[in-house]
Amino acid sequence: QVQLVESGGGLVQAGGSLRLSCAASGRILSINIMGWYRQASGKQRELVAVIPRGINPNYATSVKDRFTISRDNAKNTVYLQMNSLKPEDTAVYYCYANVRTILSATWDDYWGQGTQVTVSS
């Protein structure tokens, strides 16, 4: 089993910045993809940014040039630096990881519980 624990959400004014962190723990052998998704009230969950292991990250067009995703493989942690925040960025942000666990023959998806990001005007 794997647990993803998110932190760093909160309330910020438009134009401000936040940094989200997500640490994976458990019987982890390796992590292929790590990333962030978000879900605003009344809307579907959408991809924000993903960063495959050893490959350049991919961003939603709405956050390109404002958000930066990074990962620390030694710590099994993924980060999301969010700059120039807009009210439309308000959502619950969910950490995602595609994980190979010890003694497992498959890759499995795991999700964090979500952290609220609220951007005021």
Main beta sheet strand tally, sense and closure: 7 strands, mixed
Helix content: under 10%
Hey, roughly how much beta strand do the residues contain? Answer: over 45%
Succession of helices and strands? EEEEEEEEEEE
Low-confidence segments, given as residue ranges, are: none
Instruction: Give the termini separation.
Output: 40 Å
> Got a strand count?
11
Shape: elongated
Derived structural class? mainly beta
* Integer average pLDDT: 97
- Rg (C-alpha, Å): 14 Å
Number of helical segments with 4 or more residues: 0
Structure explained in plain terms:
By secondary structure, the protein is mostly beta strands. 0% of the residues lie in helices and 61% in strands. The protein has no helices and eleven strands. It has strands at residues 2-7, 10-13, 18-26, 28-39, 46-52, 58-59, 67-72, 77-82, 91-101, 107-111, 115-120. The strands form two sheets. Strands 2, 4, 5, 6, 9, 10 and 11 form a seven-stranded mixed beta sheet that branches. A four-stranded antiparallel beta sheet has the order 1-3-8-7, with no helix packed on it. The chain is elongated. The mean pLDDT is 97.
